[in-house]
Amino acid sequence: MAEGKVLTGAGLRGQVAGKTALSTVGKSGAGLTYRGYDV
């Protein structure tokens, strides 16, 4: 019987989803600004 892959740590941490000049996310993963305003 074939063995399947074990997937752990599902998520997108560390992946770039896109680049925009409208919003930024803090380096620690906390904090969000939209057009220069904290959200």
Task: Describe what you observe in this structure.
Its EC number is 2.3.3.5. Keywords: Acyltransferase, Transferase. GO terms for molecular function: 2-methylcitrate synthase activity. This is 2-methylcitrate synthase. The chain has strands at 23-25, 32-34, 37-38. The chain has 39 residues and is mostly beta strands. Strands 1-2-3 form a 3-stranded antiparallel β-sheet, with no helix packed on it. A hairpin with a 2-residue loop joins strand 2 (32-34) and strand 3 (37-38). The model has no long low-confidence stretch (mean pLDDT 75).
What is the fold's blueprint, element by element?
Layout: E1 23-25, E2 32-34, E3 37-38
Antiparallel strand pairs: 1-2, 2-3
Please tag this protein with its features.
3-stranded antiparallel sheet; 21% strand; 39 residues; mainly beta
Strand fraction equals 15-25%
Helix content: under 10%
Radius of gyration: 17 Å
Number of strands: 3
Shape: elongated
Average pLDDT taken over every residue: 75
